[in-house]
Structure formats: C-alpha cells, structure tokens
Amino acid sequence: MIIQIDNLTKWYRKGRTSKVPAVDNLTLAIAKGEVFGFLGPNGAGKSTVIKILLNFIRPSAGTAMIKGIPVQDPLARGSIGYLPENPYFYDHLTAEEILMFGGRTARMDRNLIGERIDQLLARLKLAHVKRQRIRTYSKGMVQRIGLALALIHDPEVCILDEPMSGLDPLGRRLVADLILDMRRNGRTVFFSSHILSDIEKLCDRVGILNRGRLLYCGNTDTLQAGAGGLEKMFIQLVEQDERENHGADLAIG
Ligand SMILES: Nc1ncnc2c1ncn2[C@@H]1O[C@H](COP(=O)(O)OP(=O)(O)OP(=O)(O)O)[C@@H](O)[C@H]1O
C-alpha cells in the first residue's frame, strides 16, 4: 500500500483540563494508482490526518507510512505533492518564481522545471499571468497556483486538501481533469472535499470520517448503484453516528 495509516489517534487540548480526539483510532490503506476521496463534516479530522501525513504535526498514537516509510522520515516526503487547504504565497513573487522555487526545492533541473511550469500553467489556464505578481491574482487563481506547485515535481502521491475550494465550475473542471490525468499516469491521489459530486465523478474509493472515526470506506461504484448516491449515504451515516454515539440530533437535509 502506498499510504498506510494504522490506529492513528490525535488528541488536541480543549481548555486546560480536557482533551478531544480529532482523529480516533483511524486505520486506512490507499493503493498505488488510486484516487481516494476523504469526506467528513467540518471538524471531522480530515486536515489533521493530512497534516500528520505531511509530518506537520505528530500523532498521539498510531503510525502513518508513505511507500512503507514512516512519515517522520524526511525520505517519505520526496514522493509527495501537497496542496494545503488555504495556500498562501509571498504576494510580490510571480507564479514562475514560486514554481521555480518549488522545482528547485525538489532538486529538479532548471530546464525541466521551465518546461513543467509552461505545461502546468497552460493546463490550469494561467499561462497569461506567469510573470505577474501573486498579489494581482484572484482567490481561484491562487488556488490553481497552489495546485501547480503541488504537482511541479510530478509526485507519485498527491495529497490535496480541498483542491476545488474557491474555484468556479470551469476551474473545478480543470482540476478534475488534472486528477484524472494523474490517475492515468499511475499516480495516487488522496484528496479531501465537500463537493460530493466531484468525489463521485473522480474517486475509486471514498472514506467518510466523523469526529475522527471512519464511518465508511469503500468503492464509489457500489454507492452509485445504491439509492440516492453519495450525498444521501453521507448524510445518513453522519446523522446516525451523531444520534447513536454522541446523543446529538443534527436534523440535516
Ligand atoms: N491546533 C488545534 N488545536 C486544537 N484543536 C484543533 C486544532 N486543529 C484542529 N482542531 C480541532 O480538531 C478537530 C478536527 O479539525 P480538522 O481541521 O482536522 O477538521 P476538518 O475535517 O479538516 O474540517 P474542515 O472540513 O472544516 O476543514 C476539530 O474539532 C478542530 O476544532
């Protein structure tokens, strides 16, 4: 398995005395070449899992590995491309400068980086702003530069935290096409999203998280065959978990 998460738990402090589990004994394995959609309501723990995979934060218990390498080992990061939930750049830099920096950090050859920049900016419909400073970009343009930076070194594993966030329908289509291309090229994509229609279209499998626990993990084909598809299933599972395990009546939908 290219991503292997075992019994992962992350506690955060809440006030002085109490702690809440943001991730609660999560076990999950993603195969090479899979497009995996990671879903869950706000605060379910998706970004926390992603931050652990990137080794930005440490788990309280359990393990996470990329290509069999524990995520704490810097070697594990060599094969990852990462898009944060809210990408942020120095706004006096241009797209070209940011992407060149990203490519150099990944130890790529300058000429190769140049080619890759042109290719990615064309795909993301940003070629015309290559030499413009980021401060002149709209929110959706910054998001697309974030994606280009995640992909500059053609990573084996792409971990994308809400890649469609802030994008218009055309931007979403561009990102969806890029994800499908990555799958065709044997790349693995692990992404979180609240846009269930995108998840249904793009993913081989989905995992549904609530309060840090995995409520469902499985194939999207089976879901579509079921009545109501992913949206209905998502709402039912989360409502049921809230009612049965947390005494809350959500009354969603
Ligand atoms: N640094 C922190 N300190 C304390 N609690 C935190 C911290 N970061 C996250 N949390 C809590 O951990 C839980 C999971 O948060 P996380 O950001 O992982 O959720 P998410 O599923 O990514 O949510 P969203 O869909 O809103 O982005 C939430 O209850 C959140 O309040």
From TrEMBL:
Query: What CDD domains does its record include?
Result: ABC_DR_subfamily_A
Would the keyword ATP-binding turn up in this protein's UniProt record? yes
* Key words, A-Z: ATP-binding, Nucleotide-binding, Transport
The GO terms describing molecular function are: ATP binding; ATP hydrolysis activity
Q: Name one Pfam family in it.
A: ABC_tran
Keyword Secreted part of the UniProt annotation: no
Domain of life of the native organism: Bacteria
Protein name as annotated: ABC transporter ATP-binding protein
